[in-house]
Specification:
Blueprint: H1 3-12, E1 17-22, H2 25-33, E2 39-41, H3 43-49, H4 60-73, E3 78-81, H5 89-102, E4 106-110, H6 129-142, E5 149-154, H7 157-160, H8 162-174, E6 179-182, H9 188-197, E7 203-206, H10 212-217, E8 222-225, H11 227-246, H12 257-263, H13 266-275
Parallel strand pairs: 1-2, 1-8, 2-3, 3-4, 4-5, 5-6, 6-7, 7-8
């Protein structure tokens, strides 16, 4: 079954889809190995891996390249950040085709002015609602696989207020978006207002202000969890600090190379080498 169909199947169920942020294919394989049903390719994480803050400095080509590696590494659905679609509705159409060709199950397109900013950063601006609606329609027209999921992200809350956010999200669903995704949720009250004021809309949530049970009980369809980025930052920084100050990293901090190699399919490589008669070059 294609991952687009898998994601559609998950969306039809009554259960919340939990999709952790992943920066790369390695992280996606770890998520899959513990039984998570989907993963989310983060734009912030993809930018961070290339040394940039999440302020719209990466190109569509760079984002799609990362998406292709991730989608090729796992059998679970990959949901991707597609920023603003990288231009006007015509650019959005190419963006959808490129991501779909990369093998991902769905993307979200936001209503920010390009170049965008992380949903929690200051200085965001949003485009007119009517322009955002046209982008959603263009995205829907561009997809080849009707199961490919198009999510309308709304960044208006911090810019034009909550009432405009509600109005925009209703318009995006009316235009055909599969889900809405309000970014910039700041607290528990926002979470409950999001659920109450958009109760009839299929909703996605980004954050770590609540656990998955609460979000499931509130009727959210997808929860993407960004704590993985901050966890990686903290643990790596602590390990590197230990190396710099103590001269070594405590072995209890890490797994083994064999743990990683096993996850990445080393045993399957050995089996294929045996099947096709591949032999190692003798060490002289």
């Amino acid at each position: 079954m294609k991952t687009t169909a898998k994601l559609r199947q998950l969306l039809k169920s009554e259960s919340l889809i939990v999709a952790p942020f992943v920066l790369n294919a390695f992280h996606a394989k770890i998520a899959e190995s513990v039984g998570l049903p989907a993963v989310y390719m983060t734009g912030a994480g993809t930018s961070a891996e290339r040394g940039f803050p999440d302020v719209g400095l990466l190109t569509m080509t760079e984002m799609v390249a990362n998406a292709k590696y991730i989608a090729g590494a796992v059998d679970i659905p990959v949901i991707c950040d597609a920023d603003t679609g990288y231009g006007n509705p015509l650019n959005v159409q190419r963006t959808i085709r490129e991501y779909e060709s990369a093998g991902v199950a769905g993307v979200h397109i936001e209503d920010q002015l390009f170049p965008k900013k992380c949903g929690f950063f200051a200085g965001k601006q949003v485009i007119p609602k009517e322009e955002a609606v046209q982008k959603i329609k263009a995205a829907l027209d561009a997809r080849v696989d009707s199961d490919f999921v198009v999510i309308a992200r709304c960044d208006a809350y911090a810019v034009t207020g909550w009432e405009d956010t509600i109005d925009r999200c209703n318009s995006y669903i009316e235009a055909g978006a599969d889900l809405v995704f309000v970014d910039g949720i700041k607290n528990q009250e926002d979470i409950h207002n999001y659920a109450k004021d958009m109760a009839s809309l299929p909703r996605m949530y980004n954050g770590d202000l609540a656990n998955t049970k609460m979000m499931d009980d509130l009727g959210y369809k997808i929860m993407i969890c960004g704590s993985t980025i901050w966890l990686i930052y903290k643990q790596l920084k602590e390990a590197f600090t230990e190396l710099a100050e103590e001269g070594a990293v405590n072995p209890e901090r890490f797994g083994t190379r064999w743990d990683v190699a096993g996850l990445l399919g080393l045993d399957a490589v050995y089996e294929l080498e045996q099947k096709y008669g591949v032999t190692e070059v003798p060490v002289v």
